[in-house]
């Protein structure tokens, strides 16, 4: 089994168990359960986040353009236009391909691509990239000034339960969750990460959007249960 999974992939688990192959395999199997539990929380968090931000961006774009235009199907007002250009284009192309592949039995066969179709194709990273960047050195670049404007005029309203005047709290939560999502998606080990603390950021982010939804997400999480079943490493 170790060879079938490849020793390079299993190296973190072998190192953690003193090269005990039986325990390394048990740890790897447990880790699969952990990543599944974390992914479940992150998946719901991403949907809640994108819907909340999309609602405010759509409202803002309607005011800025003087009409009800989808910011994903048509060129939105500046600065949203430049901040989202490449990711909007790729999402629209992906949604178009999906629509073209629908067979005649599909419930939406022959229908044109909708705003929601494109929204579903956007990657987690766009939501981080639309928030004011508070990383060291980000400074007052044109893009970051534009993000700050979007925060003040639109995106701050997506997080009504958080006192976050400049978006720093929200930026770091989303940035950390983006990193965690990438690790989980690539099956990278979480052995040396405080998973409980990282998942807590997801709960806090959802709570800043909607407390009832946060209670539902927290109550349905299996992360703590799985963490408590971590097998012995020695």
TrEMBL record:
It comes from the Bacteria. This is Abi-like protein. It comes from Gulosibacter molinativorax.
């Amino acid at each position: 089994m170790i060879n079938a999974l490849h020793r390079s992939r299993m190296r973190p688990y072998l190192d953690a168990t003193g090269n005990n192959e039986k325990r390394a395999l048990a740890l790897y199997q447990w880790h699969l359960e952990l990543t599944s539990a974390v992914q479940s929380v992150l998946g719901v968090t991403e949907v809640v986040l994108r819907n909340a931000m999309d609602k405010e961006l759509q409202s803002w774009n309607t005011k800025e353009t003087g009409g009800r235009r989808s910011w994903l199907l048509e060129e939105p007002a500046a600065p949203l236009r430049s901040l989202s250009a490449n990711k909007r284009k790729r999402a629209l192309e992906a949604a178009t391909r999906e629509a073209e592949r629908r067979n005649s039995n599909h419930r939406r066969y022959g229908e044109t691509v909708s705003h929601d179709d494109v929204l579903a194709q956007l990657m987690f990273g766009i939501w981080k990239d639309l928030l004011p960047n508070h990383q060291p050195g980000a400074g007052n670049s044109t893009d970051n000034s534009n993000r700050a404007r979007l925060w003040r005029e639109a995106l701050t309203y997506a997080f009504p339960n958080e006192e976050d005047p400049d978006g720093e709290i929200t930026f770091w939560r989303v940035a950390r969750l983006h990193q965690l999502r990438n690790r989980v998606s690539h099956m990278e080990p979480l052995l040396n990460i405080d998973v409980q603390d990282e998942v807590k950021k997801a709960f806090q982010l959802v709570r800043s959007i909607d407390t009832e939804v946060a209670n539902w997400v927290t109550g349905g999480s299996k992360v703590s249960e799985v963490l408590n079943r971590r097998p012995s490493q020695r």
